[in-house]
């Protein structure tokens, strides 16, 4: 059973010529793929968030203690 939103989208797409329907489908596929990538990124970030916060705190403490120096981008 489709939701009202899906039914509306189907009606909108069905009103288009076949060639435009194919373009819409490709755009939707790309958009859904981006959403999946964002979901994976969010999951990964949440899993490592505590480590990132700890690293940031350590870096701030090292800067405050004078134990760090500016990054030399020429040596990268």
Task: Describe the overall structure.
This protein has 76 residues and is an all-alpha fold. The protein is 76% helix and 0% strand. The chain has helices at residues 4-14, 18-64. The mean pLDDT is 94.
In short:
The chain is mainly alpha-helical and 76 residues long.
Q: State Rg.
A: 24 Å
What is the strand content?
A: under 5%
Largest sheet: none
Total helical elements: 2
Tell me the series of helices and strands, N- to C-terminal.
HH
**Overall strand count:** 0
Distance between the termini: 56 Å
Structural class: mainly alpha
Shape: elongated
Helix percent reads over 70%
Quote the average pLDDT: 94
Which regions contain 5 or more consecutive residues with pLDDT less than 50?
Answer: none
Write the layout of secondary structure elements.
Blueprint: H1 4-14, H2 18-64
Could you name the key traits of this structure?
76 residues, 76% helix, mainly alpha, elongated, 0% strand, 2 helices
């Amino acid at each position: 059973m489709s939701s009202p939103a899906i039914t509306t989208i189907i009606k909108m797409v069905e009103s288009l010529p076949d060639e435009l329907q194919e373009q819409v489908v490709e755009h939707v596929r790309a958009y859904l793929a981006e959403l999946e990538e964002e979901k994976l990124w969010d999951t990964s970030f949440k899993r490592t968030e505590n480590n990132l916060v700890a690293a940031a705190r350590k870096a701030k403490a090292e800067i405050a203690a004078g134990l760090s120096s500016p990054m030399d981008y020429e040596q990268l």
